[in-house]
Amino acid sequence: MAAGCGSWARLWSLLALAALVGLGAEAKNSEDVRCKCICPPYKDHSGNIYNKNVSQKDCDCLHVVEPMPVPGPDVEAYCLRCECKYEERSSVTIKVTIIIYLSILGLLLLYMVYLTLVEPILKRRLFGHSQLIQSDEDIGDHQPFANAHDVLARSRSRANVLNKVEYAQQRWKLQVQEQRKSVFDRHVVLS
């Protein structure tokens, strides 16, 4: 499983690197800059928004608004009412942000699949079909950690991280169970 996770991580890093190289090679294209003119209603003409890819010095009504909706003598009055703004964006930054977001989403999805499908199979294979936590009747009041020694022996013999985490989890569950008995049955608070 560790080899599979390593290959997935390498695949994601290669995809991200390829995307960044591809994005870095692009020059600033004409879609990253534009002049946007917002013209309100004028006489019998309705308001409109005009966009055009022009340089910053040409960002005015005369260069952006095409076709001009008013006849020659009214052009100046119409253009004085229009508000033109030069806008610039970085499509490379947008693309990189989306790639990072999708990568994180993909990793979380893979982790969810691991937790729902692979982890239960690994637990069954490592610990068999027996339960590590016994019922209240089997544990008894005097031996709250009856099977903890067996779990410790297993984790030492296999010596992998999953067994150690499983042992710590089982020990914690047994401690909580003993504290519940003490508080609710014997009405004694452990310190």
From TrEMBL:
The keyword Cytoplasm does not apply. GO terms for biological process: positive regulation of canonical NF-kappaB signal transduction. Pfam families: Tmemb_9. InterPro entries: TMEM9/TMEM9B (IPR008853). The keyword Cytoplasm does not apply. It comes from Indicator maculatus (spotted honeyguide). Its main location: membrane. It comes from the Eukaryota. The chain crosses the membrane at residues 98-117. It is found in: Membrane. Residues 1-27 form the signal peptide. One of its GO terms (cellular component) is lysosomal membrane. Belongs to the TMEM9 family. This is TMM9B protein. Keywords: Membrane, Signal, Transmembrane, Transmembrane helix.
